Amino acid sequence: MAKDNRETENKEVSIGREILSWVGVIVFAVALALFLNAFILVNAEVPTKSMENTIKAGDHIMGLRVSYWFKGPERGDIVVFKFPDDESQNFVKRVIGLPGDSIEIVDGKVYINGSDTPLDEPYLKETPYGSFGTFTVPAGCYFMMGDNRNDSHDSRFWDHTYVTEDELIGKAYFKYYPGFQMLH
């Protein structure tokens, strides 16, 4: 009888250890996911059609927060950032102007630093229209535009025209829903 009691106690201890080990694995996995989401990855759903045809409304994208830890964005990068006019919102746009650039938009074409040749933008949804004058990008800031220029609320229209370095969240690398597509 004493042997049966020991076996029962051993089984209970074994089951308890197994449950505890599973709880430990689950807690570790949740902590790792929270860490990755807060410090490494940026996951966003695109709410508008301002980046069509590259990214459509409802698409889910994934990027890296660490992309700009050691160097700033490059012209053409698709970036997730805090909207300068309301930092509670995240936006996704393309970097057009870098710190110190002079951006001129004439008849829908973008000219950088006085160039006679417009910026080559094969990603645009359609031929853009409109003249918006000249913007001089301050140090530590970026000028952003959507790929769907005729239907994009971007730097051309914001009260706070430029995205500062501290408003950058990360570089978008791929769309994962619906379907998979690399963005760069």
From TrEMBL:
It comes from the Bacteria. Keywords: Hydrolase, Membrane, Protease, Transmembrane, Transmembrane helix. CDD domains: S26_SPase_I (cd06530). The active site is at residues 50, 93. It is a single-pass type II membrane protein. One of its GO terms (cellular component) is plasma membrane. It holds the Pfam family Peptidase_S26. It catalyses: Cleavage of hydrophobic, N-terminal signal or leader sequences from secreted and periplasmic proteins. GO terms for molecular function: serine-type endopeptidase activity; signal peptidase activity. Its main location: membrane. It is found in: Cell membrane; Membrane. GO terms for biological process: signal peptide processing. It is an enzyme of class 3 (hydrolase). The chain crosses the membrane at residues 20-42. Coiled coil: none annotated. Its EC number is 3.4.21.89. Belongs to the peptidase S26 family. This is Signal peptidase I. The gene is lepB.
